[in-house]
Queue: 2 jobs
Job 1
Amino acid sequence: MLPEGATCAVHASAPAKRTCTRCGAFACLSCPENPFYPGMCPACSARMAQPASLRSYLAITFSGLSATIYCLPFGIVGAILGHLEVQAIDRGEAPLSGRGYANAARWIGVVTGGLTIAIALIGGVLALISAVD
Ligand SMILES: [Zn+2]
Ligand SMILES: [Zn+2]
């Protein structure tokens, strides 16, 4: 429910008619509602409509490559880029649409990076064992 006397976040003189489903900002009847993002305020739907940032694409590319060609540095780069991008999105500095890529890049990067380190360690231990023989 809207509090008594609440006004629109964009149009200070207009009474609020709804709240944004994402940020909770008040919106009035004259605030445009994007049909692709129903229930969101103009600011949020504009941020959703922005294309994902270059960094989110780079992050998913590096992590994707690390997962397909098992290259450790790519996974680390993807994890770092993905992490930075998620932080930027949370601060409102990067388009929301990149969040899926950035999150996926972060986790794929962590998993492939971790796996590659584990494989390298096991390989090193096996090499040591066979060297002892
Ligand atoms: Zn909003
Ligand atoms: Zn308004």
Job 2
Amino acid sequence: MNLMEEHSMQINYDLGAGIFRMDDIDKKIITLIQEDPGMTHSNIAKVIKKSQPTVGKRIKKLRDSGILKIQSGINFKNADISLVVVHLITKNPQNLFEMVKRCPFMLNAFNLSGEYNISIFLASSDIRQLNDVVNNHFRANSEVQKVSMDIITNIAQDFILPMDIYSKAFILPLESRSETYCEYCKKAIMN
Ligand SMILES: [Zn+2]
């Protein structure tokens, strides 16, 4: 790596703000890894015409910053798993974000700028179970003012997300039920 390149990297990597600004070399590396996660550093270096140590350093920075991740998961496009998206109006989106981190049925949440201020993806092998989860976690939740649940009926492209496949918190044997970290699931099991 020459001095010029080192200097430009320092300008481009704004880790302090929590936002990672990719430059053209980063974008090329990410594109190649997306196409072939097993591609070696030396092959990437050949394609983008940089040295192998430069590629290694770049990939380390991309990984350390959290922008580049190689993730395994379920492809919801092909799996026999029901997926719903719930749009909510809530006084406290942060509390729902915390819920999503713990609840085994919830895949991810998004803050929105519109009338509904948060959307949450939920998955289960049983659609009726998802309706129960939405009732227990949102409709019975005093902080949530409005709930709209839609079943996802078709997915255009591969949609791969990690999921706790043992998320059948409601039908697990009693001794396993305490394994859930979600307070709302626990409460629903007790009732
Ligand atoms: Zn839960």
